[in-house]
Amino acid sequence: MKASPTFQAISERVSDLPEIYQPIYGHIEFSTEASRSCEDRLERILQVYRALETAIGRPLRVLDIGCAQGYFSFNLAECGASVRGVDYLPQNINLCRTLAEEHPELDICFEIDRAEAVIDRITQDQYDLVLGLSVFHHVIHEHGVLASQKLLSRISETTRAAIFEFALKEEPLYWAKSQPDNPDALLVDFPFIHELSRHQTHLCEVARPLYVASRRYWVLDGIADEYDHWTDTSHALERGVHEGTRRYFISERTIVKLFKIPNRIKEVNFGELEQEKDILTLLPEKLSPPQLLAFGSNESEAWLARSIIPGTLFLDKITQNEPIDSVAVFKDVLQQAKLLEELGLYHNDIRTWNILITPSGKASLIDYGAISSRPRDCVWPDNIYLSLLVLAYEISTATTIPPRPIRLTSISPYNLPAPFNHWAAKLWSLPLEQWSFSMMLDAFERSLQVSGSVVELPEHLWMQKMEAAIQKLIKYGQEIEKNSQDAIFSIKNTLEENERNLADINFQNQQRFENLNEFIRRNSNRITTLESESRIKDEKIEFWRKRSEDAERQLQALLHSTSWKITKPVRIVSRASHYLLQKARAEHQAGNLVELINRAVKAVLRGALLRLMRYVLNQQELRQLINEQLNKYPSLHERLKRFAWHRGLIAPAPHATPFPLGQSEADLSRLTPRALNIYQELQVAMQKRGDK
Questions:
Q1: pTM across the whole model
Q2: Does domain 321-479 have CATH number 3.30.1050.10?
Q3: Going by C-beta distance under 8 Å and a sequence separation of 6 or more, which residues neighbour residue 423?
C-alpha cells in the first residue's frame, strides 16, 4: 500500500532528526524509537494546565521553549490551548510544522529561535503559561547562573505561571559543573515554587525536578487560585524563627502554606501541617472550621491549602491602635478553648497573632496545626493555663512584645486591670489540679459581676516589681537582638546589592562579548564569501584570457592560411558590392539598379569561384592542402562543398541526398518550419538549374 504524501513528508522529517527525543505526536510507529518517555511529565503538566484554565476561566496561551519535536505543545493544543513552540534546531521545527499541517484543527505554530532571544521579546501577559523543560542547563552552561536568573525573572514578570524541568549538578555530564547547587536558586523571583515530581532522563539515573512557579497563582494537587499577597512570616513578631522555610499565599478565598522540610526542621514543619490537616477533619461545625482543599508532601516540601476565615489578626489591631473590646475577645477565646478541651484537644500556641477578629467582631482561634491532644504550651511557661494568664495581660492591656528570648512574664493578678485582676486572683486561690478552661470561663463570667480592687499584700507588691524587673531585662535583650538583626540585615542587603550589581556587570559584559563574537562571525562569513567570489572571478578572468588567446591564435592562423589568400578577390568584390549598394541607397536609386548590381556581382563571383575550384580539383596536392586547411573551418568547408556539388564538380555525399520533388503533404507535415523553408528554397534552386 502506497503511503500518503503527508505520511511520506512526516517520515522524511523524522529521518532528518539528529535524535528522536520525544514521542512523535499522532504517530506511534515512530514513537517507539524515542529517547525519552514523556507521558509521566505530560500527566503533571496537563494537571497544572487544567487547574490554571479553571482559575483563569478560559483556554491558555502557551509558550513552549525548547519544544523539541513538539510532544507537549501538541498535547496542550489538543486541550484547547493556543501554543507557540520554539526550538533552535531547524530539523525539529520542520517536523513540528509538518505535523501541524496534518492537524489544522489545532491552534499551534512553530518557529526557529534561541531561548534567550524569545524570552527577551516576551511582552506583558502575552502568555499564560511558559514551558521550559530540560533546556535551561544549556543556557546556564553558556551564559552562567546569574544571566539565567535574569532570563527567568523576565518570565516571572510577564507570565501568569511557568513549568520548568532543571538538570542537576549531580548528573555525570559535561555541563553539570555549571549548574547551581540547588535549582531553586534559579527561581528567586518566583514567590510560589512547587516541585511537582522528579523524572529520570535517558542520559543518567539522576532524576530531574519538575517545578511549577508563579508570581500570581498557586497550583497544588490540581487546584489553582490567584493570590493577593504572600509572606514568609505568619505574623509580624516571628522574626525568622522558621529560618525562611515557610511561605504563605493569601487571597480573599484561600490561604496556602508551603513549607520546606530540610532535615533540621523537617519534623516541625511537616508535623505542623499534618496536624492541621488532621484537626480540620475532626473539628465540629460549631467551631466553624475552614474547608481543607489540599494537603501533601514530597522529599523537599509539604503543603496545605484551605479556605480562609475573613478577618484581622488581633496583633495587627493592637499595633494599629484600633479600638478593642478586650473582655469580649477574651471570653470568645475561653469559650473556644473550653470546646476544644471537651474534645480532648488543646491549642498550644494561643497568642495575639493566632486570634482572628472577624468582620462581626467575634474572636476566632486559628493556626490549627497547633491543636493537639497534648495539654502543654509550646514555650515558657509550658503550662497551658499559666500561658493563658500571659495572654490575659496582653489582651487587657493591648500590649504584645516579641516572644524572644522569652515571653512576657506577667502572670500574676496584680498587674491586670479589672475585671481580669479579679478573675486571676480567683485562679490563684485554687489548687492547680482544679484548673481547666471550663473553670476559667465560669470564673471570668463571675468576675464581670465583681467591683472594687484586689486586696494587695506585701508579697503581691514584690511580685509586681520582680515581674517588672524581669520584663526590663527581656526588653534590653530584645533591643540587643534587634540591633544585631538590623546590622545583619543591612550587611545582607549590601551583599545582595553587590551581587545584583555584579550580575548586571557580568550580564552586560557577556552581552558585549556575544555582540563582539557575532560581529566577528558576521565579518568572517563576509570575508569568506568575498574570498570565494574573488576566486570565482579570478577563475572566470583566467577562462576568458585563455579563450582570448585561443581566438587570437585562430585569427592569426586564418590570416596566414591559403584559403584566406585564395578568397581575397571574393572579399574585394564583396566590399565593392557593398559600397555600390550604400551609394545607390544614398542617392535614392535603390530599386532595379540595386538588384541588377547584386545579381551582376554574384554572377561574377560565382564564375570566378567555379573556375578556381575546377583548377584546384585538377591539382591533387593543392586540393589536399586546401582541404586540410578548410577542415579547420567546417561551416565554410561545407558551404564550398555544396557549391561544388550544385555545379556538378563533385558527387553528393550519401547523407546529402536531397528530398525528391513531389513529396506528399503527410511527409512535408513532419518537417519543422525551418526545414520546410530550406526544402522550398532547394525546390526553387533546382527549378532554376533545370531552366538553364
A1: 0.68
A2: no
A3: 392, 413, 440, 443, 444, 447
